[in-house]
Amino acid sequence: MPMTPKAAKAYKARRPEMTLDDVVTPEIRERRKAMVKEAADESAQDAATKAYDKAMPSPERFASGGKVGSAAKRADGCAQRGHTRGKML
Questions:
Q1: What are residue 83's phi and psi, to 5 degrees?
Q2: What is the pLDDT of residues 32-74, one digit of tens each?
């Protein structure tokens, strides 16, 4: 129902006029800014983790590690730097 001009002149707001600055203090603004930055950092970290996981090969492809009796499988250190020529002592 539209308001008549007479009713519009007599209208009084139920609440006093307030601005956003009356409600939101500088401390609240700083906390909100920090929360937004933290959320952005977290989403960037998640995106980086997903990209890394996608770029890395799956461990199933390299699970065997070569032949069963290879030095890489045993990891006994026979291929250290400078000791790969196979000299007999």
A1: -120, 30
A2: 999 999 999 999 999 999 998 888 876 665 555 555 455 555 5
What's the residue count for the chain? Answer: 89
List, in order, residues 6 or more apart from 38 with CB less than 8 Å away.
Answer: none
HEC string for the chain: CCCCHHHHHHCCCCCCCCCHHHHCCHHHHHHHHHHHHHHHHHHHHHHHHHHHHHHCCCCCCCCCCCCCCCHHHHCCCCCCCCCCCCCCC
Give the pLDDT band of residue 22 (cuts 50, 70, 90).
confident
